[in-house]
Amino acid sequence: MKKFIIANWKCNPTTQKKAKQLFLSVKKGLKNKKNVEVVICPPFCYLAVINNNLSFIKLGAQNCFFEDKGAYTGEVSCEMLKSLKCKYVIIGHSERRKIFGETDKIINKKIKKALKFGLEPIFCIGETLEEKQQSNTFKVLEKEIKKGLEKVSKKEIKKIIVAYEPIWAIGSNHPCEEDQAMTVALFIRKLISRLYNKQIAKKIRILYGGSTNSQNAFNYLRNSEIQGLLVGGASLKAKEFIKIIKTLG
Ligand code: PGA
User: Fold this and answer.
1) Which has the closest alpha carbon to 114: 67, 71, 184, 170?
2) Which helix (H) or strand (E) is 6 found in, with range?
3) What spacing in Å lies between the alpha carbon of 213 and ligand 1's midpoint?
4) Which atom of ligand 1 sits closest to the CA of residue 175?
5) Catalytic one among 37, 93, 95, 120?
6) Beta strands in 81-153 (DSSP E)
7) Is the pTM of this model over 0.85?
8) H or E segment and range at residue 42
9) Which tens digit of pLDDT belongs to each residue from 191-233?
10) Ligand 1 pocket: which residues have CB below 6 Å?
């Protein structure tokens, strides 16, 4: 199965010029490879700057809105993203859940809307450190998955990528142990099998994210349960991001 290396630039870099430079440096350092899908998710305002130069690199957004259009100041719709050549959209990132109060219900609405417009949601789930210490990881993930995927059909689920991002591992320099990431991936597959069926569970794409870099990337990527990485901090340095992709050969 193809592996995914997805850059989540978050609220970076600080200017359009720097965004273009970063993108072009990444592009220059890479060749198209059949075994890997490289995706860049910049802030909304840089999507149009980058989309003229895409080639084999795919574009994703970091968020979307759940209504089609209208009086929703500051929001960006899925159709707008589609028209800017986005193929993917990150939904339910823990920073959006925590800082912007996004609930499972909101996330579910966004997932359904993204699917309706032909975007592939990168659906983020993950537990806090406290939840992990209280041995509630699976309980939290099960709730997030069940609620986030409510009324998502068998046909639609195939378009979804699940990204396991333990909150304590994000930007902390404490990546999740490879074993735990694998155990969680297996857990997600079992749950998807229960909610949908075995074939769908086998095929669903599961990523890991949280303090990944060129040193630890391959620990996750060599695992057949994990189809790729959602990379934050390390995706802002072109050389480092390219190195991560090159660990796949
Ligand atoms: P990080 O972020 O790689 O900087 O830990 C990952 C993410 O939040 O998607």
Assistant:
1) 67
2) strand 3-8
3) 10
4) 5
5) 93
6) 86-91, 120-125
7) yes
8) none
9) 999 999 999 999 999 999 999 999 999 999 999 999 999 999 9
10) 8, 165, 170-171, 209-212, 230-234
